[in-house]
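Revision sheet: structure tokens.
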Amino acid sequence: MLDIIDGRVLGALIEKQLTTPDIYPLSLNALTMACNQSTARDPVMSLSGGDVEESIARLKEHKLARVVHPSHGRSVTKFRQVSDESLGLEPGELAVIGLLLLRGAQTSGELRTRAERLHAFAGVAEVDGVLAGLAGRPEPLAERLERAPGQKEARWRQLLADEASPATGAATTAPSRGSALAALEERVDELESRVVRLEAALAELL
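Predicted:
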């Protein structure tokens, strides 16, 4: 199993591949910023470029990431994920795994809402089908957690990487964020994505 930093790096690569293909693959600076975003991350981390480089090396050993060496006229090494290729993930499965890696255990309803920028699910039932498929593999990639006291719905977690904290307990029983806060979070995420784009463009010029 991957450690929590590897999970964050892989999740960030998946997210940016699906949401900002114009700057993907990512430079080390862009990937580090993506890992350390203050929104759409649980927990928020503060990784160094060295942490990310070491994680990429481990992901390469697991055949989950690749290094994209500079082409003619470019001087920046970039990184991409290949978990969809090595694990045989369909687009919807990739989106769900990415979200679970970045935000921990979630309900299928939360995944449906948060996946809007990553993959267009027809509804919660489709997400449930994807989760069931991931859990039913010979080597499961997701599992359904028992509903904890105070929870209305069961949550799901990914099985690729360690979690920051137990997926059941006080952290998962907090009430859902209101629509206003969710909208603000999405706006901040968009702004951080713009910063990542600018960082990538600047790196191309150096």
